């Protein structure tokens, strides 16, 4: 017996033809069909579930988003309210990107899904909090960096320096991070 399982291009790239694979399968039952969607990573499946809660985002559009953006990129784009990044996938226009950014900001945090730095503990959220970090992101944006890049740099710096870092230290380290 065989099953047709739809997956993102990211998941399909990681599969080996003829090899064994363990997939997380999401089943969606509609009046006219039962559809299966497969994922190799829990984070990707969780984002699929979250994305499909937004009006105008069905399973196909959610897979398109996951094919274009990694779960970390989605989280950073939502946290930074970066509508340009969210509108990159096929099927996502400016209005839907704006809806994704506004509706998912709270849902992503509620699900405990936030961008995680490479090598960091999975429970450590990277989303900058507090006015110092917000001001640092604003300063980097004013210096010409994209908001999502500035947000990511400040998030990584904040995790490295700790919450007690000063504004000047965060901006300096953020500039060094962006220069890499």
From TrEMBL:
GO MF term (any one): four-way junction helicase activity
Q: Which Pfam family is one of those matched by this entry?
A: RuvA_N
Give coiled-coil spans as residue ranges. none
Q: Which CDD domains match?
A: UBA_RuvA_C
For biological process, the GO terms are: DNA recombination; DNA repair
This protein's GO CC annotations = cytoplasm; Holliday junction helicase complex; Holliday junction resolvase complex
Where located?
Answer: Cytoplasm
Q: Where is the DNA helicase Holliday junction RuvA type domain?
A: 1-38
Major location (coarse)? cytoplasm
Instruction: Outline the segment boundaries, as ranges, of region: Domain III.
Output: 126-180
Residue span(s) of domain Holliday junction DNA helicase RuvA C-terminal: 133-178
UniProtKB keywords: ATP-binding, Cytoplasm, DNA damage, DNA recombination, DNA repair, DNA-binding, Helicase, Hydrolase, Nucleotide-binding
Q: What is known of its domains?
A: Has three domains with a flexible linker between the domains II and III and assumes an 'L' shape. Domain III is highly mobile and contacts RuvB.
The UniProt similarity line reads: Belongs to the RuvA family.
Q: What is annotated about its quaternary structure and interactions?
A: Homotetramer. Forms an RuvA(8)-RuvB(12)-Holliday junction (HJ) complex. HJ DNA is sandwiched between 2 RuvA tetramers; dsDNA enters through RuvA and exits via RuvB. An RuvB hexamer assembles on each DNA strand where it exits the tetramer. Each RuvB hexamer is contacted by two RuvA subunits (via domain III) on 2 adjacent RuvB subunits; this complex drives branch migration. In the full resolvosome a probable DNA-RuvA(4)-RuvB(12)-RuvC(2) complex forms which resolves the HJ.
Q: What does this protein do?
A: The RuvA-RuvB-RuvC complex processes Holliday junction (HJ) DNA during genetic recombination and DNA repair, while the RuvA-RuvB complex plays an important role in the rescue of blocked DNA replication forks via replication fork reversal (RFR). RuvA specifically binds to HJ cruciform DNA, conferring on it an open structure. The RuvB hexamer acts as an ATP-dependent pump, pulling dsDNA into and through the RuvAB complex. HJ branch migration allows RuvC to scan DNA until it finds its consensus sequence, where it cleaves and resolves the cruciform DNA.
Protein name, per record: Holliday junction branch migration complex subunit RuvA
Give the source species.
Reyranella soli
